[in-house]
Protein backbone atom coordinates (compact mmCIF):
# COMPACT_ATOMS: atom_id res chain seq x y z
CA UNK A 1 0.00 0.00 0.00
CA UNK A 2 2.90 2.37 0.73
CA UNK A 3 4.34 1.82 -2.76
CA UNK A 4 0.91 2.50 -4.28
CA UNK A 5 0.55 5.69 -2.24
CA UNK A 6 3.99 6.92 -3.30
CA UNK A 7 3.33 6.16 -6.96
CA UNK A 8 -0.08 7.83 -6.87
CA UNK A 9 1.37 10.89 -5.14
CA UNK A 10 4.02 11.29 -7.86
CA UNK A 11 1.43 10.90 -10.61
CA UNK A 12 -0.98 13.42 -9.09
CA UNK A 13 1.65 16.02 -8.29
CA UNK A 14 2.88 16.12 -11.90
CA UNK A 15 1.02 18.83 -13.80
CA UNK A 16 -0.77 17.75 -16.95
CA UNK A 17 -3.65 20.03 -17.86
CA UNK A 18 -5.46 19.13 -21.08
CA UNK A 19 -3.25 19.89 -24.07
CA UNK A 20 -0.12 20.24 -21.92
CA UNK A 21 0.24 16.72 -20.52
CA UNK A 22 4.04 16.55 -20.96
CA UNK A 23 5.12 16.44 -17.30
CA UNK A 24 2.43 13.96 -16.27
CA UNK A 25 3.10 11.82 -19.33
CA UNK A 26 6.83 11.70 -18.60
CA UNK A 27 6.18 10.67 -15.01
CA UNK A 28 3.78 7.93 -16.13
CA UNK A 29 6.22 6.75 -18.82
CA UNK A 30 8.95 6.44 -16.20
CA UNK A 31 6.78 4.12 -14.10
CA UNK A 32 5.57 2.20 -17.16
CA UNK A 33 9.12 1.49 -18.36
CA UNK A 34 9.64 -0.77 -15.34
CA UNK A 35 7.09 -3.23 -16.76
CA UNK A 36 7.00 -2.58 -20.51
CA UNK A 37 9.50 -2.24 -23.34
CA UNK A 38 9.52 0.46 -26.03
CA UNK A 39 7.55 2.99 -24.01
CA UNK A 40 6.90 6.13 -26.03
CA UNK A 41 5.09 9.46 -25.84
CA UNK A 42 3.41 10.28 -29.13
CA UNK A 43 2.89 13.60 -30.86
CA UNK A 44 -0.44 13.96 -29.04
CA UNK A 45 1.09 13.56 -25.58
CA UNK A 46 -0.24 10.05 -24.93
CA UNK A 47 1.98 7.35 -23.41
CA UNK A 48 1.85 3.96 -25.15
CA UNK A 49 3.62 0.62 -24.99
CA UNK A 50 3.08 -2.98 -26.12
CA UNK A 51 4.49 -6.19 -24.65
CA UNK A 52 4.34 -8.91 -27.30
CA UNK A 53 3.42 -12.51 -26.52
CA UNK A 54 5.43 -15.41 -27.87
CA UNK A 55 2.14 -16.97 -29.00
CA UNK A 56 1.64 -16.89 -32.77
CA UNK A 57 -1.22 -14.66 -33.95
CA UNK A 58 -1.86 -13.52 -30.39
CA UNK A 59 -4.73 -11.14 -29.77
CA UNK A 60 -4.09 -7.70 -28.29
CA UNK A 61 -5.63 -6.44 -25.06
CA UNK A 62 -5.52 -2.69 -24.42
CA UNK A 63 -5.54 -1.29 -20.88
CA UNK A 64 -6.34 2.41 -21.05
CA UNK A 65 -6.56 5.34 -18.62
CA UNK A 66 -6.29 9.06 -19.31
CA UNK A 67 -3.33 11.09 -18.09
CA UNK A 68 -4.73 14.61 -18.52
CA UNK A 69 -6.34 16.68 -15.75
CA UNK A 70 -8.77 19.57 -15.63
CA UNK A 71 -7.43 23.09 -15.15
CA UNK A 72 -7.49 26.55 -16.65
CA UNK A 73 -5.87 28.38 -19.56
CA UNK A 74 -4.73 32.02 -19.49
CA UNK A 75 -6.77 34.02 -21.99
CA UNK A 76 -5.86 37.60 -21.09
CA UNK A 77 -3.82 39.97 -18.91
CA UNK A 78 -5.59 43.17 -17.89
CA UNK A 79 -4.19 46.66 -17.25
CA UNK A 80 -3.72 45.91 -13.54
CA UNK A 81 -1.79 42.68 -14.07
CA UNK A 82 -4.63 40.30 -13.27
CA UNK A 83 -4.87 37.16 -15.40
CA UNK A 84 -8.11 36.21 -17.10
CA UNK A 85 -8.75 32.52 -17.67
CA UNK A 86 -11.03 29.96 -19.28
CA UNK A 87 -11.57 26.34 -18.43
CA UNK A 88 -9.77 23.22 -19.67
CA UNK A 89 -12.30 20.49 -19.00
CA UNK A 90 -15.30 20.56 -16.71
CA UNK A 91 -14.33 22.72 -13.75
CA UNK A 92 -16.62 22.98 -10.74
CA UNK A 93 -16.66 26.78 -10.56
CA UNK A 94 -18.32 26.76 -7.14
CA UNK A 95 -15.03 25.75 -5.54
CA UNK A 96 -12.47 27.91 -7.31
CA UNK A 97 -12.93 31.28 -5.62
CA UNK A 98 -10.00 32.13 -3.31
CA UNK A 99 -8.06 28.99 -4.25
CA UNK A 100 -4.24 29.04 -4.48
CA UNK A 101 -3.09 28.15 -7.99
CA UNK A 102 0.05 27.46 -9.97
CA UNK A 103 0.56 29.18 -13.33
CA UNK A 104 2.80 26.97 -15.46
CA UNK A 105 4.93 29.28 -17.63
CA UNK A 106 7.82 28.67 -20.00
CA UNK A 107 10.19 30.11 -17.37
CA UNK A 108 8.85 28.10 -14.45
CA UNK A 109 5.88 27.97 -12.12
CA UNK A 110 4.29 31.04 -10.54
CA UNK A 111 2.14 31.15 -7.42
CA UNK A 112 -1.22 32.87 -7.70
CA UNK A 113 -4.63 33.28 -6.09
CA UNK A 114 -8.08 33.08 -7.67
CA UNK A 115 -9.41 36.52 -6.77
CA UNK A 116 -12.84 36.95 -5.25
CA UNK A 117 -14.92 39.85 -3.97
CA UNK A 118 -15.20 39.78 -0.14
CA UNK A 119 -18.68 38.79 1.12
CA UNK A 120 -19.02 42.22 2.78
CA UNK A 121 -19.02 43.85 -0.67
CA UNK A 122 -21.39 41.45 -2.45
CA UNK A 123 -24.88 42.56 -3.37
CA UNK A 124 -27.72 40.21 -2.41
CA UNK A 125 -28.03 39.19 -6.06
CA UNK A 126 -24.28 38.53 -6.45
CA UNK A 127 -24.27 36.37 -3.32
CA UNK A 128 -26.77 33.98 -4.92
CA UNK A 129 -24.77 33.34 -8.10
CA UNK A 130 -21.79 31.17 -9.00
CA UNK A 131 -19.27 33.36 -10.90
CA UNK A 132 -18.82 32.60 -14.59
CA UNK A 133 -15.33 31.46 -15.57
CA UNK A 134 -14.80 34.69 -17.53
CA UNK A 135 -15.52 36.69 -14.36
CA UNK A 136 -12.72 34.99 -12.40
CA UNK A 137 -9.28 36.57 -12.25
CA UNK A 138 -5.90 35.39 -10.98
CA UNK A 139 -3.74 37.61 -8.79
CA UNK A 140 -0.04 36.80 -9.20
CA UNK A 141 1.18 39.99 -7.56
CA UNK A 142 2.55 41.65 -10.71
CA UNK A 143 1.74 44.85 -12.54
CA UNK A 144 0.63 44.60 -16.16
CA UNK A 145 4.19 44.88 -17.51
CA UNK A 146 5.55 42.36 -15.02
CA UNK A 147 2.77 39.90 -15.70
CA UNK A 148 3.24 40.13 -19.47
CA UNK A 149 6.97 39.48 -19.09
CA UNK A 150 6.39 36.26 -17.14
CA UNK A 151 3.06 34.92 -18.40
CA UNK A 152 1.96 34.05 -21.93
CA UNK A 153 -1.53 33.65 -23.26
CA UNK A 154 -2.19 29.91 -23.40
CA UNK A 155 -0.26 29.07 -20.23
CA UNK A 156 -2.03 26.43 -18.16
CA UNK A 157 -3.12 26.78 -14.53
CA UNK A 158 -3.68 24.13 -11.87
CA UNK A 159 -5.12 24.45 -8.38
CA UNK A 160 -2.38 24.15 -5.78
CA UNK A 161 -3.61 21.41 -3.45
CA UNK A 162 -1.38 18.90 -1.67
CA UNK A 163 -1.71 15.15 -2.01
CA UNK A 164 -3.04 14.12 1.41
CA UNK A 165 -3.40 10.77 3.14
CA UNK A 166 -6.70 10.47 4.99
CA UNK A 167 -7.80 7.94 7.58
CA UNK A 168 -9.07 4.52 6.58
CA UNK A 169 -6.76 3.96 3.61
CA UNK A 170 -8.11 6.91 1.66
CA UNK A 171 -6.35 9.76 -0.10
CA UNK A 172 -7.27 13.20 -1.42
CA UNK A 173 -5.70 15.17 -4.26
CA UNK A 174 -6.24 16.98 -7.52
CA UNK A 175 -6.00 14.82 -10.65
CA UNK A 176 -7.02 11.51 -9.07
CA UNK A 177 -9.30 11.56 -12.12
CA UNK A 178 -7.65 9.73 -13.76
CA UNK A 179 -4.16 9.23 -12.35
CA UNK A 180 -5.82 6.61 -10.12
CA UNK A 181 -6.66 4.67 -13.30
CA UNK A 182 -3.05 4.98 -14.43
CA UNK A 183 -1.90 3.64 -11.04
CA UNK A 184 -4.34 0.71 -11.28
CA UNK A 185 -2.93 -0.31 -14.66
CA UNK A 186 0.66 -0.02 -13.43
CA UNK A 187 -0.22 -2.18 -10.44
CA UNK A 188 -1.88 -4.73 -12.75
CA UNK A 189 1.30 -4.91 -14.83
CA UNK A 190 3.31 -5.61 -11.70
CA UNK A 191 0.95 -8.52 -10.92
CA UNK A 192 1.51 -9.88 -14.44
CA UNK A 193 5.28 -9.47 -14.29
CA UNK A 194 7.06 -12.47 -15.79
CA UNK A 195 3.88 -14.03 -17.21
CA UNK A 196 3.28 -14.68 -20.89
CA UNK A 197 -0.50 -14.79 -20.90
CA UNK A 198 -0.79 -15.62 -24.59
CA UNK A 199 -1.87 -12.09 -25.55
CA UNK A 200 -0.13 -8.91 -26.54
CA UNK A 201 -0.60 -6.43 -23.69
CA UNK A 202 -0.97 -2.83 -24.88
CA UNK A 203 -1.15 0.17 -22.58
CA UNK A 204 -2.26 3.72 -23.31
CA UNK A 205 -2.22 6.64 -20.89
CA UNK A 206 -4.02 9.07 -23.11
CA UNK A 207 -4.22 12.83 -23.49
CA UNK A 208 -7.25 15.08 -23.91
CA UNK A 209 -9.94 12.85 -22.39
CA UNK A 210 -11.39 15.84 -20.56
CA UNK A 211 -12.03 17.63 -23.87
CA UNK A 212 -13.49 14.74 -25.85
CA UNK A 213 -11.19 11.71 -25.83
CA UNK A 214 -9.04 12.67 -28.80
CA UNK A 215 -5.97 10.93 -27.34
CA UNK A 216 -7.87 7.65 -27.05
CA UNK A 217 -8.97 7.94 -30.68
CA UNK A 218 -5.40 8.23 -32.00
CA UNK A 219 -3.83 5.72 -29.58
CA UNK A 220 -6.43 2.99 -30.10
CA UNK A 221 -6.19 3.37 -33.87
CA UNK A 222 -2.43 2.89 -33.77
CA UNK A 223 -2.46 0.00 -31.26
CA UNK A 224 -5.36 -1.80 -33.01
CA UNK A 225 -6.56 -3.90 -30.05
CA UNK A 226 -9.00 -6.80 -30.15
CA UNK A 227 -10.13 -6.18 -26.56
CA UNK A 228 -9.94 -3.10 -24.35
CA UNK A 229 -10.67 -2.07 -20.80
CA UNK A 230 -11.02 1.65 -20.15
CA UNK A 231 -10.19 2.45 -16.53
CA UNK A 232 -11.63 5.65 -15.11
CA UNK A 233 -13.30 6.99 -11.98
CA UNK A 234 -17.02 7.02 -11.23
CA UNK A 235 -19.11 8.85 -8.67
CA UNK A 236 -18.88 7.51 -5.12
CA UNK A 237 -21.75 7.89 -2.70
CA UNK A 238 -21.89 10.95 -0.44
CA UNK A 239 -24.71 12.09 1.89
CA UNK A 240 -26.09 14.29 -0.90
CA UNK A 241 -25.50 11.97 -3.88
CA UNK A 242 -28.23 10.96 -6.31
CA UNK A 243 -29.54 7.42 -5.89
CA UNK A 244 -28.68 5.27 -8.88
CA UNK A 245 -25.87 7.53 -10.09
CA UNK A 246 -23.21 6.63 -7.52
CA UNK A 247 -21.69 3.54 -5.91
CA UNK A 248 -20.11 2.98 -2.49
CA UNK A 249 -16.45 3.76 -2.00
CA UNK A 250 -14.30 0.99 -0.55
CA UNK A 251 -16.51 -1.80 -1.92
CA UNK A 252 -14.33 -2.69 -4.89
CA UNK A 253 -14.06 -2.24 -8.64
CA UNK A 254 -17.13 -0.85 -10.41
CA UNK A 255 -17.85 -2.99 -13.49
CA UNK A 256 -19.95 -1.07 -16.00
CA UNK A 257 -22.93 -2.25 -18.01
CA UNK A 258 -24.03 0.05 -20.81
CA UNK A 259 -25.87 -0.23 -24.15
CA UNK A 260 -22.63 0.69 -25.93
CA UNK A 261 -20.26 -1.66 -24.07
CA UNK A 262 -19.58 -5.32 -24.82
CA UNK A 263 -21.86 -7.27 -22.45
CA UNK A 264 -19.78 -10.42 -22.88
CA UNK A 265 -16.77 -8.58 -21.46
CA UNK A 266 -18.76 -7.13 -18.58
CA UNK A 267 -20.21 -10.58 -17.78
CA UNK A 268 -16.73 -12.11 -17.93
CA UNK A 269 -15.36 -9.50 -15.53
CA UNK A 270 -18.13 -10.22 -13.03
CA UNK A 271 -17.44 -13.95 -13.28
CA UNK A 272 -13.71 -13.39 -12.74
CA UNK A 273 -14.33 -11.17 -9.74
CA UNK A 274 -16.53 -13.84 -8.16
CA UNK A 275 -14.11 -16.70 -8.88
CA UNK A 276 -11.04 -14.76 -7.68
CA UNK A 277 -12.90 -13.22 -4.72
CA UNK A 278 -12.06 -9.71 -5.91
CA UNK A 279 -14.37 -7.07 -4.40
CA UNK A 280 -16.60 -5.63 -7.10
CA UNK A 281 -19.89 -3.82 -7.71
CA UNK A 282 -22.03 -2.98 -10.71
CA UNK A 283 -22.36 0.42 -12.36
CA UNK A 284 -25.33 0.38 -14.74
CA UNK A 285 -25.83 3.25 -17.16
CA UNK A 286 -28.00 4.09 -20.14
CA UNK A 287 -27.51 6.30 -23.16
CA UNK A 288 -25.17 6.32 -26.12
CA UNK A 289 -21.98 7.28 -24.26
CA UNK A 290 -20.18 6.22 -21.10
CA UNK A 291 -18.28 9.49 -20.63
CA UNK A 292 -14.99 7.55 -20.71
CA UNK A 293 -12.36 6.72 -23.32
CA UNK A 294 -14.38 3.61 -24.14
CA UNK A 295 -16.58 5.81 -26.33
CA UNK A 296 -13.66 6.40 -28.67
CA UNK A 297 -12.01 2.99 -28.36
CA UNK A 298 -14.91 0.69 -29.22
CA UNK A 299 -15.50 2.30 -32.63
CA UNK A 300 -11.84 2.10 -33.67
CA UNK A 301 -11.13 0.44 -37.03
CA UNK A 302 -13.54 -2.51 -37.33
CA UNK A 303 -14.65 -2.27 -33.70
CA UNK A 304 -13.13 -3.30 -30.37
CA UNK A 305 -14.77 -5.41 -27.67
CA UNK A 306 -14.60 -2.90 -24.83
CA UNK A 307 -15.37 -2.83 -21.12
CA UNK A 308 -15.20 -0.12 -18.48
CA UNK A 309 -13.95 -0.68 -14.94
CA UNK A 310 -14.06 2.31 -12.60
CA UNK A 311 -12.69 3.43 -9.25
CA UNK A 312 -15.34 5.10 -7.06
CA UNK A 313 -14.37 8.70 -6.31
CA UNK A 314 -15.92 11.48 -4.25
CA UNK A 315 -15.91 15.16 -5.27
CA UNK A 316 -15.01 14.58 -8.94
CA UNK A 317 -13.59 17.55 -10.88
CA UNK A 318 -12.66 19.42 -7.71
CA UNK A 319 -9.24 20.10 -6.19
CA UNK A 320 -9.97 17.63 -3.34
CA UNK A 321 -11.01 14.39 -5.03
CA UNK A 322 -11.11 11.42 -2.63
CA UNK A 323 -10.86 7.67 -3.17
CA UNK A 324 -10.01 4.45 -1.39
CA UNK A 325 -6.68 2.76 -2.22
CA UNK A 326 -8.27 -0.66 -1.73
CA UNK A 327 -10.51 0.03 -4.74
CA UNK A 328 -7.44 0.69 -6.90
CA UNK A 329 -6.03 -2.65 -5.80
CA UNK A 330 -9.31 -4.42 -6.66
CA UNK A 331 -9.28 -2.88 -10.14
CA UNK A 332 -5.64 -3.91 -10.65
CA UNK A 333 -6.34 -7.54 -9.71
CA UNK A 334 -9.35 -7.62 -12.02
CA UNK A 335 -7.38 -6.19 -14.95
CA UNK A 336 -4.61 -8.73 -14.48
CA UNK A 337 -7.12 -11.58 -14.45
CA UNK A 338 -8.87 -10.22 -17.54
CA UNK A 339 -5.58 -10.32 -19.47
CA UNK A 340 -5.03 -13.94 -18.39
CA UNK A 341 -8.55 -15.02 -19.34
CA UNK A 342 -8.40 -13.40 -22.78
CA UNK A 343 -5.19 -15.35 -23.34
CA UNK A 344 -7.07 -18.54 -22.45
CA UNK A 345 -9.93 -17.63 -24.84
CA UNK A 346 -12.36 -17.36 -21.92
CA UNK A 347 -13.77 -13.93 -22.85
Based on the model shown, name its key terms.
six-stranded antiparallel barrel, Aminopeptidase, 2 domains, Elongation Factor Tu (Ef-tu), domain 3, globular, alpha+beta, eleven-stranded mixed beta sheet, 28% helix
How does this model look, in words?
The structure is a single chain. The chain has helices at 2-13, 22-32, 124-127, 144-150, 176-191, 214-223, 263-276, 294-297, 325-343, and strands at 40-41, 47-51, 60-66, 71-77, 83-88, 100-105, 108-114, 137-139, 156-159, 164-165, 170-173, 200-206, 227-235, 253-257, 280-284, 305-314, 321-324. With 347 residues, the protein is of the alpha+beta class. The protein folds into 2 domains: 2-69 and 174-343, Zn peptidases (Aminopeptidase, 3-Layer(aba) Sandwich), CATH 3.40.630; 71-159, Peptidase M42, domain 2 (Elongation Factor Tu (Ef-tu), domain 3), CATH 2.40.30. The strands form 2 sheets. Strands 1, 2, 3, 10, 11, 12, 13, 14, 15, 16 and 17 form an 11-stranded mixed sheet that branches. It has a 6-stranded antiparallel beta barrel with strand order 4-5-8-7-6-9. A hairpin with a 4-residue loop joins strand 10 and strand 11 (170-173). The relative contact order is 0.19.
Amino acid sequence: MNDLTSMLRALCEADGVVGCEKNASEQAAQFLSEWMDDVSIDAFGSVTAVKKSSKENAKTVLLDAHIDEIGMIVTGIDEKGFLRVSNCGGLDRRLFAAQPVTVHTKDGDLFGIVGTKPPHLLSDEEAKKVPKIEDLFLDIGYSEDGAKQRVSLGDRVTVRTPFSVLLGGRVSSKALDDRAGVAAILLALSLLNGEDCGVNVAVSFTSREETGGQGATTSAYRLAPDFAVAVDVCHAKTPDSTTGKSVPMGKGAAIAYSPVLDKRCSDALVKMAKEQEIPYQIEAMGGRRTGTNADEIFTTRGGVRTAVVSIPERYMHTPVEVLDLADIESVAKLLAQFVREVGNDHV
